[in-house]
Amino acid sequence: MVNKIVKTIVALLVLAGVAYAHPPPPDGYVEEPQQVTSADDDEPAFNMLGFRIGIGALPIEHAHATTFSLGLGVEHPVFAKTRVFGEYEWMWVMRADERALQAMSPRPEEHGSGHRTVIGLRRELTSKRVSRGFSLFLDTEVGGGVALVNDNMAGVEFLPTAFLGLRGGYDFYSRNDDSPSRTFEAEFLLRAIAIPDGIGMMFGVGMFWGN
């Protein structure tokens, strides 16, 4: 008997909360039944904005160049599990000059800065939902762009760029419509970069937000 009374009170409290959140419909209104499908649990795709820091190596003028970069990126969903993205990176470049290491007299340090812009496509390879709103992912990407590097010794260089990469990480998704950011994504990036003098690499860590 006591259990029935407790259940009745709980049910009344739940109904009162629903009634407070949703005012009663007008007279004569008939609510149509809603069908719940598995697609209702899918996390929608959002426009994304974020940044990334990276370290890499490029064979500029057949010499090994170490790069540090700070970039901004935007993404837009175009197909199922596919996004188009654009990025801008500011780069700091240091070149290893073997002749400077072998010379008896000191040589000026060779360094420079640069800018790189790319566009590409990102495609989901696999994903794993750990819990509701939290998922792990592994994506692939392909694209191209241009880089402009200004070196204190060699001057300005224009470098056409093509790349192929892998992204892995996790994302959080919020179902709260009032949230300023419905989704947050943290990623690790490994990218092979082709320029006229050869192929370089870049490793990056990024964070993106979407709404």
- How much strand content do the residues show? over 45%
Count of spatially separate domains: 1
Q: Which structural class best describes the helix and strand composition?
A: mainly beta
Q: Total number of β-strand segments?
A: 8
Distance from first to last alpha carbon = 50 Å
CATH topology: Porin
Characterize the main sheet: 8 strands, antiparallel, barrel
Which of globular, elongated, flat, extended, rod-shaped describes the shape? Answer: elongated
Major sheet strand order: 1-2-3-4-5-6-7-8
Enumerate how many helices there are, as a single number: 2
Q: What's the order of the H and E elements? A: HEEEHEEEEE
Low-pLDDT stretches: 12-23, 33-41
Report the mean per-residue pLDDT as an integer: 81
CATH class division? Mainly Beta
Instruction: Indicate the percent of residues in helices.
Output: 10-25%
- Output the radius of gyration: 26 Å
CATH 2nd-level architecture: Beta Barrel
Oligomer: single chain
Question: Care to describe what's here?
Answer:
- By secondary structure, this protein is mostly beta strands.
- Helices cover 12% and strands 61% of the residues.
- The chain has one domain (45-210): Porin.
- A hairpin with a 2-residue loop joins strand 1 (48-60) and strand 2 (63-79).
- The two termini are 50 Å apart.
- The model is unreliable at 12-23 and 33-41 (pLDDT under 50).
